[in-house]
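As a warm-up, study this chain.
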Amino acid sequence: EVQLVESGGGLVQAGGSLRLSCAASGFTFDDYAIGWFRQAPGKEREGISCISDRNTFYAYTMKARFTVSRDNAKNTVYLQMNSLKPEDTATYYCAAGLDCALRGHEYDYWGQGTQVTVSS
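Now compare it with the structure written out below.
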């Protein structure tokens, strides 16, 4: 069974940091790109970054504050988020697909999400 489990979300003050984790199982992790997305209430899903063994992409507006990394030995991808702002408040999702992209429809598997709330 394919599983993607996000963790590390929570409540943080503006200017703070969080590191999200995405633990994967049930598929050949090395062969897949992992994307990070977020969705705030009433807003469209937004691509943040993706990472594969060959590529790492960021949405232009995220690149300065967010860093993605992966540990293939642990089947885990991380998203380090710094200088958080209230507008970063959203549910954050990871997804697995064969190609690295910031478009959600490129991905085959999705996690359940982890909530990030940034207070002002």
